[in-house]
Structures are given as C-alpha cells and as structure tokens.
Amino acid sequence: MSDLDLNLLPALDALLQEQSVTAAARRLGLSTSAMSRTLSRLRAAVGDPILVPAGRGMVATPHALAIAEEVRFLQEAVKTVLSPPATVNIRDARRDFTIRANEAFVLLYAARLSAAVANTAPGIRLRFAPRSDKDVQSLREAAIDLDIGVLPSESGELRCQTLFEDRYVGIARVGHPIFEADPITVASYVAWSHVVFSPHADFFGPIDRALAGIGHARDVRLIVPSFPAVIAVAAASDLIGSVPRSYCRSGAVTEIDTFELPVAVSGFGVVQAWHPRMDADPVHRWLRALIFESFRSMD
Q1: Which of 70, 103, 149, 170 has the highest Cβ tally under 10 A?
Q2: CB 131 within 8 A of CB 149
Q3: pLDDT grade for 299, boundaries at 50, 70 and 90
Q4: Before 282, cis peptide (omega within 30)?
C-alpha cells in the first residue's frame, strides 16, 4: 500500500464502476493497453486482483466491491481539494470577520461599513478589535482577518492595499486666538501649548522632528491615548492639537476648527492588510473589495 499513487484513484474508480478494462480506458481517454498496465499496478498495490475474468467479461472481487464506495468518496474528495474554491453566493454567506483598527477609525467608519455589509450580505457580521499592537502573528493565526491603519513595520509577508492617503492638520477650539494670525506661522504655532497623542507616551513626534529641523520646538503639555481625545481636549481648552485630517471628516466635530500646519510633515497611507493565506478565500476577497470601494467613494 505504501506504493499507492493518488493518481491511480481515477483508474481504480473507473474499473470498479465499469468492471471492464476496455470501458474504463474509454472513460478516462486511455488506450486499453495503458489501462491494463494500470490495473497491474493497482493489483500489486492493493494486494488483490480487483477484477477477474468471468466468461467474456470481468467481475469485481469481494474486496473490490467492499472498497468501491470508499474509492468513489476519495475520488470526489480529491477533486474537491484540488479544484478552485467554489463560487459563493455572498448573500447566503454566514461568517464573522474580525478587523483590527484604532478607536478613531471605529468611531468614524464602523457604522458605514456595517451598513454596506448588511445591504449585500446580511449573514456577515463584523467584529472590531482594538489596535493595541500591530503584530503580524495575529494575522498569521487568523485571530484577526484584517488590520486597518498605518502600514505595520513588520509587513514584509503581508498583502496591503491603500484605502486613502492622509496627513496631519492642526486643530484648535472654535474662536481660539491662534486664528487671528493669517496665515498661521511657525512662530504663532509654537507660541501656544499643545496636546498630542502618542502610543508610547513620547513627547517628541513627527511634528516635533520637523520643527527641530528648522530650529523650533513646541511646548507639549499633555499626552492623551487617542486622537479623539486630542480633539476633545482641544475643543475644551486653549491647547493646540494635531490629528490626521480624516479624523475631522465627521459632521459631529463642530467644536474645533482646523488649519494647515506651518511646517512640512510627511503624509501617510492608511491600508488594509491581510495574510496571503486569505488571498483566494472568496468571502474574504469580497469584504476587502467592499471596504476598498467604500473608501474610494468617499474621495
């Protein structure tokens, strides 16, 4: 049995179904002599004659009859395993997806994405998980299905698709004296105290590096754990904040005004990332396409 080749399964199935070397050969598009050689290999592998002469035809042995149903099952199973995924009717799909994203993304976009999914695939549910880390292992192990945010640093093995480009803007409460300067200069910008978001409680971020490059520094007085918290603090105080422009798209943000930063800070892309093991999964592909199209329609 150790010499059995899975390529012999179709021949064995045909022989057991037809109980004729000639008919089995015709069924598989082989010559009779080729099928005879295959039958010899099967006999040696199985340790049973499989088919024996009976008058002008052949009949299956008791062992062959006993395994015929299992051979047919294995033949169909191999076809299924070695065939492309079946086409899925997305409206009938039943599945839960876990998406890792930060709090601001959930506040701004979760409701819209949930509605878009429900309109097309009511059996699909979304679960948003906090983006407390960006480890690739969670994607490898399918603990999460998608990671949405700035491209992870360990992204070499991941598939990534840019959803939109973003950049930092300054924010201050409506009526803040900083808006009296037109335009807002570096000098007027650094004259005020600032509130910043930093995942590592770092007082020195990309804006500070840009300011340091031109010989300036800002007075960071407060670090908070999220960009929505920056918006809330800036709206309720004289502290100046800076957040990605996308976080100010919501119509609910009415207590602040935005302004262009007086120093050049590089923009960044927001991506959806997934592990290559999910490339061919039809429902996963559908969800990725829906998310991508949803953001493209916002532009």
Answers
A1: 170
A2: yes
A3: low
A4: no
Beta strand pairing call for 57-60 and 51-54: antiparallel
Q: Which residue has the tokens 């007075």?
A: 219
pLDDT band at 154 (very low <50, low <70, confident <90, very high): low
How far is the C-alpha of 162 from the C-alpha of 271, rounded, in Å?
Answer: 4
Domains of the chain: 6-81 (1.10.10.10), 90-159+272-296 (3.40.190.10), 168-266 (3.40.190.10)
Rounded to a whole number, what is the distance in angstroms from the first to the last CA of the chain? Answer: 62
Q: Cα-atom radius of gyration of the chain, to the nearest Å? A: 32
Q: What is the mean predicted confidence (pLDDT) over 160-170?
A: 93
Neighbours of 146 (CB within 10 A): 22
- Scored b (16 or more CB within 10 A) or e, 286-295 reads bbbebbeebb
Which residue has tokens 């057991």? 16
Residue 223: alpha-carbon gap to chain centroid: 32
Residues 206-242 pLDDT 10s:
999 999 999 999 999 999 988 889 999 999 999 999 9
- Alpha-carbon distance of 274 to 76, in angstroms, equals 31
Q: How confident is the model at residue 1 (pLDDT cuts 50, 70, 90)?
A: very low
